[in-house]
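input
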Amino acid sequence: MLNEAVMPFLNGEPETAKLISRDHVNATMGFEGSAISVEKPAKSIHRMLSSSGNPTMTNLAAIFSALKSTMKVDIQAHCVSVA
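output
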């Protein structure tokens, strides 16, 4: 599920990625738990991940890092060259 949240960001679909990320945060650590990890108010995280939210890359990285830590997984990106 974390991969489903990250891939749309990498593929230029931020609205989809934010909504999937919001659902993922809610289903795993919750907004209060993420607020502690990200050091932002829970309401701010909820707004960032709403369809009209505009999170910074720093905030997104912090949210993904918190999710990775909670789930004990790693995210790796691989570049594929297109000819």
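quick obs: The two ends are 30 Å apart (CA to CA).
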